Amino acid sequence: MKTTTLILIPMLFLSILGFAQEADSVKKGTVNTTNFTLFNTNVIVYKNADGTKTWEFISKDNDEYQEYHSKNNKSSNGLTLDIGINTWIGDDAAPAVKPWGSWNPAINYHYTYKPSKNFNLKSTIGVSWYNFKFEDRNLQALRGEEGLVFVEHPSGAGTKSKISASYANLTLVPTVQTTNGNFSFGVGPYAGYRLGGKGKVVYRDPQGNKAKEFQMGNMFAADFRYGLRAEICVADVKLYVNYDFNETFQENKGPKLNALSFGFIL
């Protein structure tokens, strides 16, 4: 019994050692790797020299996850959300915009290339929404024959009025950051193409019931938008500011205004 045990122990040790060396050789023999995050798990795909692929799943709570990212930090990708507000700058005669309710949500997919600890290049593709909520709740935006017009709603009992537009966007933001990653700042261009738009007014009918009216057909929002985006990160707080160089409305179809958006990146 003792003799058998003494024989099995070295064999077991050699088997474990061989498995470890085989696993390590898979990583050393890779042509390149791709990694992405799924829920709380980092997924690493190794493309081997023989054309096969090896998949590895590492929990973010695992020390190996931290070790992997410290050695393989050339790029990252994933989804981010912008949660902010809109306003516009320009024609003082244009309707005043109420910040609360003029939301600027966006869904973006980003790919970030990190050639060094202090610089990265972030590119994104996504969809964003402009919402401009009027201070005057009874003011309604309508599509006229020659352009956008603003009139008082005939009910005289408006509770909310706004116009909105959605855009598909491309953004490129070069960013510098401190070595410890606690502070970063970047500025870069963006461009977008309009997907849709509408106007909306909510009011009370003579019976006191809530009613809604919609104006479809994009409300003469510009077909293209372009401008500069700034991003700043302090510790875990990430902020953005977008400023459109183009006018918010099509030429001679509305007041001469430029959109300004700012908020948080999640």
Provide an overview of this structure.
- This protein has 266 residues and is mainly β.
- The chain folds into 2 domains: 30-72, no CATH class; 76-265, Porin (Beta Barrel), CATH 2.40.160.
- It contains 2 helices and 14 strands, in the order αβββαβββββββββββ.
- Strands 4-5-6-9-10-12-13-14 form an 8-stranded antiparallel barrel. Strands 1-2-3 form a 3-stranded antiparallel beta sheet.
- The termini are far apart.
User: How does the helix and strand content classify structurally?
Assistant: mainly beta
Kindly report the spatial arrangement of strands forming the biggest sheet.
4-5-6-9-10-12-13-14
Helix and strand run: HEEEHEEEEEEEEEEE
Q: State the domain count.
A: 2
CATH topology of the largest domain: Porin
User: Helicity level, as a percent range?
Assistant: 10-25%
Oligomeric state of the chains present here: single chain
Q: Which regions contain 5 or more consecutive residues with pLDDT less than 50?
A: 1-27
Major sheet details: 8 strands, antiparallel, barrel
Distance between the termini: 62 Å
Give the tally of β-strands. Answer: 14
CATH architecture of the largest domain: Beta Barrel
Question: Any idea what the radius of gyration is?
Answer: 27 Å
- Which CATH C-level class of the largest domain is it? Mainly Beta
